[in-house]
Amino acid sequence: MKILVLHRVPYPKIAYHRGIDHDLHDVTYFGRREALASLPAGLRCEQVERTGLRAPYDEARAWLDDRPQTFDRVISMSEYELIDAARLREHLGIEGTSVEQVMLARDKVLMKEAVERVGLRVPRFLPVEEFLGSGGRSPWTGATVLKPHRGASSVDVVVFDSAAQAHEAIAARRTGVPSIDEDGRGLPDHEVEEFVEGKILHFDGLVEKGVVLALGASEYVGTCLDYAHGVPMGSFQFEVADDARDWVTDALAAVRIEDGSFHLEAIVDGTELVFLEVGNRVGGADVVDTFELATGIHLPSFELRILLGEPTAGTLPEPPAERAWYGWFVYPGHHLGDRVFEGFGGAEPFRSAPEVVTWHELPLGAPLPDHITYGAHETALAGIAATSSPEVTRSWMTRLFASLTLRTSTPRVPEPATPDLVA
User: Residue 230 — left, alpha, or beta (φ > 0 → left; ψ -120 to 50 → alpha)?
Assistant: First the structure.
């Protein structure tokens, strides 16, 4: 089989060799130089570098025009390039998830409309242009979230105290979102929705032909939005109830996520689950690793097998005999700008704690990241903990966050070299 991979996610996060037999299949990785540099030495494959000056679809079309060939599969494991992969599949006339399906699992307005149609609760929402056109009238009056239709990592997400305040800020172009405030070009790409108070959960797993094969549930400690503003966050696993499993199955069916991995977020309002958003991809941070530790299932590997048409149901490994309850945690640094990492105060009792499975701190003197990231070896601290119960994992993580103090310094400016004196 000839396989084209639109390669963006660093190779170690996916470990393609665990899901694709590179000796059996002819695999081409198409990506920017930094992405291709993450491929392991000796991997049997072809590498094609793209400039990144245009969309992956456009650059792939130009490459294929210069070098005509066919593929049996076009795959992307990055949510940012799922639409490009779907467009390429349609252009080449090969099977796989359609553009329409991808859009349902990428556009937050479309997905909420689809989920609401099947009777599941979603936050009340409006496209920004409709919100402005109505003079700020909305079915809710309280706290209001402004967010991009297809955003991630809470970039350009703003919470206002009321719908009226949101309308005033958007109309006056002072939201803090550059694409809205500078020239208004981003207005069609944003929505507003009511802020629903409650615990935030994420459900992760694997689906094949619409059947959920594996499912895990976790609760966030902190939020993605607070993390974007510099507050540490994590999540801990808990047992999935039967009614939650049914709810997840209905939500996936509504947005036509039928094959591969999924990452679905929901808010608990009293006893009711409120759909927030979903992606046809694996979760970020250490979701993949904690899921595998708990279940024995490496989500990207089995997703790749599903996408290649290899039967997966009945081949999943059995979970470990002794159940532990895992959680992942991250401490940000991107919010501090051009600073250098100088370690953590209060970390010593936790680094060598028996609960710690992994612990990755930046090296002393390393620059802090200049962008939002949840990745180990990129952010100031990332790791995994395991305990005997969900409650203990949550408590341990809460104590960790309360104890840590991030130390930083300004980068040193090299002194100018002294010129050689010539007699």
Answer: left
